[in-house]
Design a protein that fits this description.
By secondary structure, the protein is α+β, with helices and mostly antiparallel strands. The chain is 43% helix and 17% strand. It has a six-stranded mixed sheet with strand order 3-4-2-1-5-6, with helices on both faces. The chain has a six-stranded mixed sheet with strand order 11-10-7-8-9-12, with helices on both faces.
Length: 538
């Protein structure tokens, strides 16, 4: 068995229930049963590869640059996918490249922008039932939202129907008893087959295990501040989500917003048929989204606003005071045309800050995401100032008393000018798509980084010119400079010219028709290139 086969089997053993996408150069490969499954689901060619003496294994791969497309297709079909990356640079590695799973992707743990619906949340839910009660928790790791509740079992289906979770965690062994009753009520009989249930060990739903997971995650000594200290089923459901995410976000930092404990009694419960009759999100038998109530009302300028409007429509408030506050703000913007136009203009410049921060926390953000975060923070500062200028303490008497209607909005915005300034100062105007692809930080921001780039450039220039210089110095026209992972950079001379090899050449390898040599100066520059490349990436 080859070393790479042993490496793959060790990783696959740790993730038996996931399709392992194993990075090999410019491709993600699957092997054995995973390859047969991927071949069917993705409609890609199934081949085979020799991975040892008398050992050929099924194999199917997809290009690395097209990963998101294939990942979406697998996840939509309910599969878990373990992404196994190369952790060391193949060009700088001697021997087997280090590899490990950096993330397990499931329907409820998506972070990639191309796999998410901008206008809707992607919820991971967790359910535990006991003695006529249920604990329900849900999280959207792309936005950081995290909430839990304890409710009667009879109301569980209505709440799950409102959330429409992409994935539901349940204690192992409870799948059959849970799936039919509440999913059929929440989504109709035709939706039952589309339910993505992820069974977990029952111990993950244990009260003490769940409590410890929550206390550790939020670094607190009690759950009283979250309002769920006396709701054991809510704690158990929320703790299971923390445990699950800790296992899927392998190399990222799991950071969810402060846990919110809510009561379904504060909002109107709408069942599936009511939502359909009111055409809240889909209209008519064609289920046209544009002709629904949401489609008619949605003039939001940010993805965050679109998701919030959807939440408000699906969960109508029963609290009159909060309803009046919302409507007073709407009325004020309706009357103040210039303010409304200015606010809309600023909102249009704000990207999806929630989901950018979700990728930051998961360690999956790209440089351009950080750059757009900076631009969004600048627009946010302008929006905050605009609202404060129309708040009671700033407005003129001629504006009347209605300006208090938006003061609560101004109070909820917290500009971060220092962070916005740092991003503007640090990042290039048009940064590379990924770290390691080139231009990310501005020249002059980091003297150390600038020095490393100059050193690397000088060293590569030396190596690039070495071949011509050595040909002129030795008179060996066929001399060439090459590189491989075993010896690094070398000078190769064919057997016909061995008599002309200078005394300072050090023999490293003998081939059938040539010899390979090194010189001390070449190895010094090679070390400089390899070390600088690693340090630049850091």
């Amino acid at each position: 068995m080859t070393p790479i086969r042993r490496q793959y089997l060790k990783i696959k053993h740790a993730y038996p229930n996931a399709i392992v996408l194993f990075r090999l150069g410019d491709f993600y490969e699957t092997f054995d049963e995973d390859a047969e499954l991927a071949s069917r689901e993705l409609e890609i060619t199934l081949t085979s590869r020799s991975m040892g003496k008398n050992l050929r294994v099924p194999m199917a791969g997809v290009p690395a640059h097209s990963l998101e497309n294939y990942l979406a297709r697998l996840v939509k079909k309910g599969h878990q996918v373990a992404i196994c990356e190369q952790l060391t640079d193949p060009a700088a590695s001697r021997g087997l490249v280090e590899r490990d799973v950096v993330r397990v992707v499931t329907p409820g743990t998506l972070l990639e922008p191309g796999l998410l619906d901008q206008a809707a949340n992607n919820y991971l839910a967790s359910v535990i039932e006991e003695d006529g009660l249920a604990g329900l928790a849900y999280a959207d790791i792309s936005t950081g939202e995290f909430a839990t509740t304890q409710l009667d079992q009879a109301h569980l289906a209505l709440e799950l129907g409102r959330l429409s979770p992409a994935e539901v965690l349940v204690p192992r062994g409870n799948e059959a008893s849970l799936e039919a009753p509440w999913w059929a009520v929440a989504h109709g009989p035709e939706g039952a087959s589309g339910l993505c249930l992820s069974p977990m060990e029952a111990s993950a739903f244990g009260l003490e295990t769940a409590r410890k997971a929550l206390l550790s995650h939020f670094r607190v000594l009690t759950l009283e501040g979250f309002g769920c200290e006396d709701l054991p089923l809510a704690i158990r459901a929320a703790g299971a989500i923390i445990e699950y995410l800790a296992g899927t976000l392998k190399r990222g930092k799991l950071r969810l917003a402060a846990l919110s404990t809510y009561s379904t009694a504060s909002c109107m419960a709408l069942d599936l048929q009511t939502r359909r009759n009111l055409e809240l999100f889909q209209a008519g038998r064609s289920e046209n989204k544009q002709h629904s109530l949401l489609g008619a009302l949605d003039q939001t300028r940010t993805p965050m606003g679109g998701r919030l409007l959807r939440q408000w429509l699906g969960q109508p408030l029963l609290a009159l005071e909060q309803l009046d506050r919302r409507l007073d703000a709407v009325d004020y913007f309706s009357q103040e045309g210039l303010l409304r136009a200015s606010a809309v203009s600023l909102l249009a410049r704000i990207p999806d800050l929630e989901r950018i921060m979700g990728r930051v926390n998961a360690g999956a953000v790209a440089p351009r995401g950080v750059k757009s975060l900076g631009g969004g923070l600048e627009a946010l500062a302008g929006l905050s100032q605009l609202l404060r200028d129309h708040s009671p303490s700033h407005s003129s008497p001629s504006m009347g008393g209605n300006d208090a209607a938006i003061s609560w909005l101004a109070q909820q915005l917290t500009p971060l000018p220092e962070l916005a300034a740092l991003i503007e100062e640090a990042f290039a105007a048009d940064p590379a798509g990924e770290v390691g692809e080139g231009n990310v930080l501005r020249e002059g921001f980091s003297p150390e980084l600038d020095g490393l780039k100059r050193a690397t450039s000088d060293a590569r220039g030396f190596i690039a010119g070495l071949e011509q210089r050595e040909r002129e110095r030795t008179g060996i026209r066929g001399l060439r400079v090459g590189y491989n992972q075993v010896f690094g950079y070398y000078i190769e001379v064919t057997n016909a010219y061995l008599s002309k090899v200078p005394g300072d050449y050090i023999r490293r390898q003998t081939l059938a028709n040539a010899e390979r040599f090194i010189v001390p100066e070449l190895k010094e520059y090679e070390s400089l290139v390899l070390n600088s490349r690693e340090r630049i990436a850091e």
